[in-house]
Amino acid sequence: MNQLPLQKSVIARKIPNRIIRRLAIYTLCLPALTGSFSCGNSANEEAAQFFLRGNVQLQKREYREAIRYYTEAIDKKADFADAWHNRGLAKYRNGDREGALADYNKAIDTDPGFAAAYLNRADIWLESGHALRGLSDLRRIETVYTDSSFYQTRLGDTYVQLKNPGQAQAAYDKAIQLDSKNVEALTNRGALFFQQKAYEQARQDLDRALTLNPEQPEALNNKALLLANDGQYDKALLLVDKALAIRTGQPFYLNNKGYYLLMLNRAQEALPVLQEALRKDPQNAWAHRNLGIYYLQQQQADPAISSFTAAEKIDPSVDHLYGYSGKAWLLKNDRIRACTQWKRGVTAGDSMAAELAKIQCR
């Protein structure tokens, strides 16, 4: 029986590639910078010079240098909202999420109407699992970005995290209506369709995304999930390997690769891949479950049960978790515990557990 692949489809997330307000358009004496900015103020002029130097370094992807120049600008002019914002963006791209959040907060405190700062801060809220905070920021700037395909994509991502698929699809639909070549929106709507088991619609979106960008790793990974769902594990393996060549070591992709190898009866190749996925993300319930499948295939009941228990503690909704867990207990000749797991699976909507409970637990 073909099993649903063991890792949820992956939402594409672009690193924010925008400094939407006033990047690189300042002159040294631009009065529009803030109400108090004037050409006659040497501190303000010095702040503008440092800001412009920071912009140059940011565009060159020299993030440490950009941060240094923006810090100089802020030292000269503490209420320089744009410098706070751009320093936050540089920190974000340099991997400092907490520092970026602090700077975006300061930019918003300094200028409560700074729409780009709300948009970029929403990204961080979404990444850190605070979708309601992200939604609050996005709603605050809705009138500014309502016709932005990127904004609608991020709104869709937020609703996905909030488990509101109707609103998520509406946002993705609008994003694609605004820009039919928005690969991220196509990929993410495809992921949403996959989660809803609307596989043909998912395939259409993912194929469109890959036609536009054959190197989109999330689309490659999600198309692999569709192939695996049809039992085409060899083709799925080729695609997830391509995704891993683009995003080396991505734990979701590693986990999926491990699963496909297990389904292709290549267990010894799967083991180090699954171990690496868990090393990179110990809280990945799917990878714990897949490792349990490996041990089950090796007829090692105790480590299998341990892995399934770890998966259940993290996320009991992982597909077929109770079905496999019951099999591990049956391997120990403990039919009572096996049936207990399968009956729990019936309550949880685990189709494998329900089928096994019918056969084994009369």
Automatic annotation (TrEMBL):
Xref: Gene3D superfamilies: Tetratricopeptide repeat domain (1.25.40.10)
A Pfam family: TPR_16
Superkingdom classification of source: Bacteria
Keyword set, alphabetical order: Glycosyltransferase, Repeat, TPR repeat, Transferase
First and last residues of every TPR repeat: 47-80, 81-114, 149-182, 183-216, 285-318
An example Gene Ontology molecular-function term: glycosyltransferase activity
Name recorded for this polypeptide: UDP-N-acetylglucosamine-peptide N-acetylglucosaminyltransferase
